Amino acid sequence: QSELTQPPAVSGALGQRVTISCTGTYSNIGGGYDVHWYQQFPGTAPKLLIYVNNNRPSGVPDRFSGSKSGTSASLAVTGLQPGDEADYYCQSFDSTLNAWVFGGGTKLTVL
Amino acid sequence: EVHLLESGGDSKQSGGSLSLSCAASGFTFSKYAMAWVRQAPGKGLEWVAAISGGGGSTYYSHSVNGRFVISRDNSRNTVSLQMNSLRVGDTAMYFCAKDQGGSCGTDCYPTGVDDYWGRGTLVTVSS
After folding, report:
1. Which of B5, B45, B48, B68 lies 20 to 30 Å from B115, alpha-carbon distance?
2. Do A51 and B115 touch (CB under 8 A)?
């Protein structure tokens, strides 16, 4: 059981917008620790998608955006494309564990 | 171009030991913290350990603390993970990751932002 809770799966129609939530506690997200997001396609290594809550590395389309409020964070994907089908993970630091933690991951399906 | 190449994955019996290595290139290795992240078959990502750029600070998940040791050789641009007292639950693909880094003081501490990843090396532990 992860300290960061994500929905196991989300889906959206081609071209639509979806959000993936990441719910934490006051020992991680709510404690002011930054949230990062990773994208992973089957059989490949994860890729950094969003860092420090809402920043995109170069090369990541602006269709991907992140936000954080209270003990939760969200990843939004607009203009859904078939190539967005992947697993998405949030990550933050947990002060109780004194370690970085990942959410359980969310599988995004484009209908 | 940043490149990370893991090696050392193998099949071991419970209670055994294994050492993983990650060869890095394309950046000033000693200026960046490094991390190991694992993924059990069909499961999500699990952060395992991290080490500062100078090697003076190490960090571990509770699940491996006391059994695994992360180290680095800045003269060879490699980071290693010594895995002892292996358990069936350690079975996973192990990824090496470069920390994005920030400002370095006396050392370059991990930020938790892993901006480059290797392809991984598979560790299988059987009972």
Report:
1. B68
2. yes
